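User: Could you write out the 3D structure of this protein bound to iron/sulfur cluster? I've included everything you need below.
Assistant: Certainly. Input first, then the structure.
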Amino acid sequence: MRPTGKLHLGHLVGALQNWTHLQDVYDCFYFVADWHALTSHYADTGEIVGNALDNVADWIGAGLDPERSVFFVQSLVPEHAELYLLLQMVTPIPWLERVPTYKEQIEQLREKELNTYGFLGYPLLQSADILVYRADFVPVGEDQKPHVELTREIARRFNNFYGNVLTEPDVKLTRTPKLPGTDGRKMSKSYGNTIGLAEDEASVRGKLKTMMTDPARKRRTDPGDPAKCPVFDLHKVFSTEKTRAWASEGCRTAGIGCIECKSALADHLVSHLEPIAKRRHEYERRPDDVRDIFVAGAGRAGEVAESTMADVREAVKLPPMGSL
Ligand code: SF4
């Protein structure tokens, strides 16, 4: 996860809930990708460490357990950079230029100068992040599949030159529910339409009050269609079946108003966020503990990464670390 700001409901539903589930089944490595943040935020790096600590407090709030999963900050495990460098030697530039998100992001983030070597290389850095742990699976959504496919191609090409040293990862596809922001578009920091994980109740309720609804309901007496309402998409994720049935029926028949409907959603959302905020605050009060988690995690991650790199160096016929 890139530490570029505070986490919101989109992160919870799109990643953290799934990560929490996966830690019961697999040996998981989760990291704050500070070098990845630099690929687009290189001109303003002052907030990266603060964001990393803040994000991990949210991870723990959402139920991730540093005892069961490995948490770390990418730049504390320099083997990522070493493998990235070696992968650069064998990666044809057109493979990176054709990554779908590359052109898309340059287009979306026009205010930044992203015509850089670092930004072109970010999918390759992701490949190094995966391959350095010989990962079996990468949990991603549909839109990230091409990145894992690129990683597989690069591993094959590398192995072709140097022997069977890197493991081709598989995709662990996560289907995430639609999560619109307050303006009806996808919830995203760049649209300014998010509801934050650490927001207080008054702020959550206030944002829901002004959230966009089915435009057909101009007046209280106009019936609406929940399928056309972003508020109902949030009901699907956070409300009980009983509330959803009540909202759906009341919307179609104009039996309830949008204010009532949103207020019921707010009750569910607030009670969903409450335990997250509670766990988060426990850690927020102890920032040193979060730092310790990162350092201990970097040690555990570094052992695995170093073992891969020892094999990679040998395969490429480079000297082992610290000798010649
Ligand atoms: S009643 Fe609820 S689902 Fe229907 S338009 Fe209003 S907010 Fe949306």
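The beta strands are 29-32, 70-73, 137-140, 170-173.
User: Perfect, thank you.
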